[in-house]
């Protein structure tokens, strides 16, 4: 009987990891694939390796929090399977609405529901985790706004990543020993930019592994029915499988959507979100790349679009409604105006990425998703107390 329940739990865990891989691979490698720097297959392979590395190292801290610190009892095998079901349900609902819900928040919500039903919730740990859920978007917003307002225009002028026709590198056989050389149309700037995109993609995949590997298997680890090392391998394979399959469309979608945001802006977002997520994962805080990524995009575009006004006017909301995040798409060769000076009209009206309704939709799902998983888990474990 135990073996059957464990098998069901592993299957559900693979389903959760599969969906995580489909979404996180697109976020990590969509910009690079969209820019033509590497193929989808290569991106999926790199994602699998660095997810494993992140889960095997930093992810263990998050695993400890999810499997043993949120509630004061061990999560039984049957309860762990049920918790995984509610996590998968939360992801499914988010996919239906087309909103990237933070998986970590949904996972914590399901475990909290179990704790409330069995009166074993560790409220001190929950308060610590939720406080970081509140602070993280603020940090991402502030970093994005600061970079967008004061740094981005100069970076946009000096740092441009482009791809030329032909191979990036070629083998030079003119000497006695074959050596690597630049491709026929490759510039040193292109080579440097490609390396930067590649390294940041690997970093983001590592961060995704640190935060998401525990989400897929932690409920099965708590009671000792599944060893941590085995659980990490299972989660990695499931996430990798999602990366090789359903993530293909996600990478196309993210790469296409981020074409509205220059590759430079996407890289800034990736660096910021990955760093925040890795640091908090190292501290054992279940956090999601989605939360930091979305709010950094909001801050970056808001900061870039509000350069024509002073900081006091921007904070008070005295901003022309036509000054949108599309300002990120300004021509790199355009003159850099000083803070408070009017910018060219095409800069102020370039696109409409700052969509308040979309932001409200995202934030609402960040609240609704975990709340729904908590309530559903609480109702289930109250009705079926022997499961907990």
Report on the structure:
Helix 1 (2-34) packs across helix 8 and helix 4 runs antiparallel to helix 14. The longest helix is centred in the middle third of the chain and has 36 residues, at 123-158. A two-stranded antiparallel sheet has the order 1-2. With 388 residues, the protein is mostly helical. It contains 14 helices and two strands, in the order H-H-H-H-H-H-E-E-H-H-H-H-H-H-H-H. A hairpin with a 6-residue loop joins strand 1 and strand 2. The two termini are 17 Å apart. It has one domain (2-387). Helices cover 70% and strands 2% of the residues.
What are the salient characteristics of this protein?
388 residues, mainly alpha, 14 helices, 2 strands, globular
Helix and strand topology:
Elements: H1 2-34, H2 40-56, H3 59-69, H4 77-97, H5 103-118, H6 123-158, E1 169-172, E2 179-182, H7 188-221, H8 228-244, H9 247-257, H10 263-282, H11 289-305, H12 311-315, H13 345-348, H14 356-383
Helix pairs in contact: 1-2, 1-4, 1-7, 1-8, 1-9, 2-7, 2-8, 3-7, 4-5, 4-7, 4-14, 5-7, 5-14, 6-10, 6-11, 7-8, 7-10, 10-11
């Amino acid at each position: 009987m135990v073996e059957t329940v464990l098998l069901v739990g592993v299957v559900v865990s693979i389903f959760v990891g599969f969906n995580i891989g489909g979404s996180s691979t697109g976020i990590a490698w969509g910009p690079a694939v969209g820019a033509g720097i590497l193929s989808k297959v290569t991106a999926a392979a790199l994602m699998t390796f660095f997810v494993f590395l992140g889960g095997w190292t930093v992810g263990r801290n998050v695993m400890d929090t999810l499997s043993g610190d949120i509630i004061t009892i061990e999560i039984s095998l049957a309860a762990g399977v049920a918790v995984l079901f509610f996590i998968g349900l939360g992801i499914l609902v988010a996919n239906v609405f087309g909103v990237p819900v933070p998986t970590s928040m949904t996972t914590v919500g399901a475990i909290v529901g179990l704790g409330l039903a069995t009166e074993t919730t560790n409220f001190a740990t929950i308060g610590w985790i939720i406080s970081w859920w509140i602070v993280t978007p603020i940090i991402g917003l502030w970093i994005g706004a600061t970079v967008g307002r004061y740094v981005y225009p100069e970076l946009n002028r000096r740092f441009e990543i482009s791809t030329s026709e032909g191979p990036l590198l070629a083998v030079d056989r003119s000497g006695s020993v074959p050596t690597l050389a630049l491709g026929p149309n490759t510039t040193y700037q292109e080579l440097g930019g490609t390396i930067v995109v590649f390294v940041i993609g690997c970093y983001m995949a590592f961060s995704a592994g640190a935060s998401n590997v525990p989400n897929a298997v932690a409920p099965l680890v708590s009671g000792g029915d599944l060893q941590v090392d085995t659980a990490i391998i299972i989660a990695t394979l499931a996430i990798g499988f999602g990366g090789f399959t359903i993530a293909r469309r996600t990478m196309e979608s993210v790469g296409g959507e981020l074409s509205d945001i220059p590759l430079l802006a996407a890289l800034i977002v990736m660096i910021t979100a990955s760093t925040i997520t890795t640091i908090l994962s190292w501290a054992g805080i279940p956090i999601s790349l989605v939360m930091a990524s979305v709010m950094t995009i909001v801050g970056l575009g808001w900061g870039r679009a509000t350069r024509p006004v002073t900081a006091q006017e921007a904070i008070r909301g005295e901003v022309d409604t036509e000054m949108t995040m599309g300002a990120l798409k300004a021509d790199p060769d355009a003159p850099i105006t000083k803070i408070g000076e009017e910018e060219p009209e095409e800069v102020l009206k370039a696109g409409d990425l700052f969509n308040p309704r979309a932001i409200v939709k995202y934030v609402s799902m960040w609240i609704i998703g975990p709340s729904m998983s908590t309530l559903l888990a609480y109702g289930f474990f109250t009705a079926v107390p022997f499961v907990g």
